[in-house]
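User: My instructor asked us to take a sequence, write out its structure as tokens, and then describe one feature of it. I'm not sure where to start. Here is the sequence I was given:
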Amino acid sequence: MIVDYEDKYLENVKDLLLELEEYIVSIDEDHLDRVHPDYRERMAIVDLEEVKNNNGKCYLALDNDKVIGLIMGIVIKFDEYDYLDYKCPKEGEITELIVSKNARSKGVGNLLMKKMEEYFKSIGCKYILVDVFAYNENAIKFYDKEGYHNRMHRAIKKLGD
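Assistant: Let's start with the prediction itself. The structure tokens for your sequence are:
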């Protein structure tokens, strides 16, 4: 079942975000990501505030009232300079998509994506953007299956010590 976020699920959201960040750290070949000691307590609050301030939504996937996945999305705000080189259609951005490791490959991510896509479409968004960590091959495959494609490529190079 997919439901709107409620504060009673805050601790579950914190746990899911921590689970994702620990996974990202484990696959980060550049060793730049980390789990700060304050991450669990602060990140959910920051993400939910961003959702609130940007006409966004947070949906939760529940199984017997236990949160097994979440998706957060916001509406992108453009500034006066964005219009100089971009048409600036109304766009949504998925800022978080997490399915607990015990619930993966069961269609939960797909249900969450469809719910967010419906929301963005209902408020007039023409596109949806999502950033995916380059080393997260499972997420890249998932978004490819969902019909997303690359529009930008961001590269990184470590400078000598």
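For the description part of your assignment, you could build on this observation: The radius of gyration is 16 Å. Try explaining in your own words what that tells you about the chain.
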